Amino acid sequence: MFASPVAQSTKTRRRRLILLLAVCSLGPTLPAQPAPPEDRVHALLSRMTLEEKIGQLVQYSSRSDMTGPASSAALAPLIRAGGVGSLLNIIGAAETRKWQRLAVESSRFHLPLLFGLDVVHGYRTIFPIPLATAASWDLARIEAAERIAAAEAAAAGINWTFAPMVDIARDPRWGRISEGAGEDPFLGSAVARARVIGFQGDGRFATPESILACAKHFAAYGAVQAGRDYFTTDVTERTLREVYLPPFRAAVEAGVGTIMAAFNDLDGTPCTANAFLLDRVLRREWGFRGFVVSDWAAIEELRAHGTAADLRDAARQAVVAGLDMDMESEAYGPHLAELVRSGAVPEARIEAAAGAILVAKFRLGLVDDPYRYCDEAREKTAWLRPESLAAARDLARRSCVLLKNNGALPMKRDGITVALVGPLADSPQQQLGAWSGQSHREDTVTIRSALAEFFPGTRLRYAPGCTVRGSDTSGFKAARDAAAGADVIVAALGEEADQSGEATSRTSLDLSGPQLALLRELRATGKPVILLLLTGRPLTIEPAEPLADAILLAWHPGTMGGPAIADVLTGAYNPSGHLPVTWPRNVGQIPIFYAHKNSGRPAPHVGEPEDRYYSHYIDAPNTPLYSFGFGLSYTTFAFEGVRLNSPVLRADGAPLVVTVRVSNTGSRSGETVVQLYVRDRVGSVTRPVRELKGFAKIALNVGESREIEFKLTPNDLAFWRADMTFGPEPGQFDLFIGGDSTATLSTSFTFETTPRN
Ligand code: NOJ
């Protein structure tokens, strides 16, 4: 099917020459520098047929191999005819090279393909899930992790990741909460920026180690009703703009090359064909110049949504609304040409879409060097480098959140025997979490193997106890026996990898299967119990909480999860993670998040007479089990002396400088996340009780104090006002600083729009 390597290289040289002649203006001399991508694309488009332009808008998934099953055979002729712009789920330098060769050798303009893949938290070196890394609040390390993920994926021929997922999620029933940065738009925006820059570098793709990023899912996918994946969303434009859109905007400002439209409908219009989102907000308001890809088969799904009667009309709606690339719907390829010829779709729209996709290919350097991402030699050395594994271990321990500690942690290293119990203690696949398909089981270091280094021989007693799902309790006895001979019990419980991620909505967030019963058995031994939670989302652990002396949340920590957890349990690393999402007591409280509105009947202050006619439940408190921003350490921190450089922030004045003294008051060095929240006391519309407006992760030695400074500008106070203009309103603001969203250290200031004389 393919030409011999010698023939190919001759052909490749000829192809490059032809291409150069085709895309550079055909003047008497060639320019020394290639023209800007936009100019080259312009020249190219003017020579392409309508069908060839439409071909750029088409994306197919791997059908295993071209010489494989019958369905795969269809791709090769399509590619040869210039009918495919991108493939997804094809991996490996050799495999991508094979497909790339087919495209560039046989299509008329020799245009390369984009190879897309969900590189969500690492390629071969799997980092903790994104929700976990958000708990680190460590933007530099998050960015560095994506740089490693990009380099590993790039070596396998991937030049485009479907990440970062920047959906704000306030409903842990939704399994995809694991893929984002949690509930808060301020933190979510900061993380989105870091992740885009991590994947794309400076956006010039000078070396084939950065790849195109894709902010997804645009928009409000995290707001699906009842937390049910793929379901409908119906949020107000104000909530959309204040809560769900900011991380996308941050991604666009960071230069993200592509955006993926969400599956859900929003206020009655599916995002796939939503001109308000794709055209007005994304392109006109934010100036986005990249391209928008659909989610998987989402154009076709317009029929199920009930807004398109057939695939032809679905294609029309999507492309007219601003959706550029069709992922696996087979809608654009068969229908767009006829739609243009019948006048239903302007050809200019196809040109704009094809142009944006081609610009991305030029920017990635693929047009000039189609194989720059398919390098078998690099592939062999790019994966699982020692420094990548060290970064994964470091980020995994920084993502751990200590939720409870009555002194059981850190564990003593000498002279004790540890019972390691639980179905997730020695489970390489499960600790990786969702979207870790390229990892290999043998790369993963489990908790059991890592703890065995600290507690060799018989000092580590292991028993799984039970499975994560099901009802078999026959392993309890072995677990009790392991515990009986130990000084301390570590119980690794939680979720398996496929209990969170896509299509994993849950109506119960309790520890599944017999896990809670196992914990009760362990408690009954009278030994100290450390509950180690491995999960992709908040779980409702209120019943488990009193059974544990300490609770360490490790999320799904990835390839190096074992050593990272061992570092934290033994005190080699002092935990510094803080929750990026509220942990409810029970599912009835959901959605529960810190930046809620006050209501007209807020909960009465403690000490006020009992009154039932206020906003509350009669069977549970309003408060969560663990608040947004919360996280303990093996040391303690004090926040004191908050001061402002002025009691007034003026619209046209200098920023307000907020200073707070943070001290390490415990007996170990450690890190904390200093968090600044603001409350707008009176607005033209109701405002959240507090909103995160700044944070700083800092390290302090024992006894050390440091002044931390934040700057607030009028833009930090801006919101979508009653008349739907964006800006701040004059008045009084409260400010809170501390280690979580319930911080009590506070002061207040006034914002003035007109300067005093
Ligand atoms: C569907 C998912 O919603 C999306 O996040 C992913 O990128 C695509 N499938 C491609 O795998």
List the helices and strands and how they pair.
Elements: H1 5-23, H2 37-45, H3 50-55, E1 58-61, H4 70-73, H5 75-80, E2 86-88, H6 93-106, E3 114-117, H7 130-134, H8 139-155, E4 160-161, H9 185-200, E5 214-218, H10 237-244, H11 246-253, E6 258-261, E7 265-266, E8 269-270, H12 275-285, E9 291-293, H13 302-305, H14 311-321, E10 326-327, H15 332-341, H16 347-363, H17 376-382, H18 386-399, E11 401-405, E12 418-421, H19 428-432, H20 447-454, E13 460-463, H21 476-484, E14 488-494, H22 515-524, E15 529-534, E16 550-553, H23 561-569, E17 637-644, E18 648-650, E19 656-664, E20 670-680, E21 691-700, E22 705-712, E23 719-720, E24 726-727, E25 731-738, E26 745-752
Parallel strand pairs: 1-2, 1-10, 2-3, 3-4, 5-6, 6-9, 12-13, 12-14, 14-15, 15-16, 18-26
Antiparallel strand pairs: 7-8, 11-16, 17-19, 19-22, 20-21, 20-25, 23-24, 25-26
Helix pairs in contact: 2-16, 8-9, 8-17, 8-18, 9-11, 14-15, 18-23, 20-23
The structure holds 1-deoxynojirimycin.
What does this structure look like?
Residues 1-28 and 65-73 have low confidence and may be disordered. With 757 residues, the protein is α/β, with parallel strands linked by helices. The chain is 30% helix and 17% strand. It is globular and about 75 Å long. The protein has a six-stranded mixed β-sheet, sandwiched between helices. It has 23 helices and 26 strands. Among the domains are: 395-572, Glycoside hydrolase family 3 C-terminal domain (Rossmann fold, 3-Layer(aba) Sandwich); 637-752, Immunoglobulins (Immunoglobulin-like, Sandwich), CATH 2.60.40. 1-deoxynojirimycin (NOJ) binds next to loops.
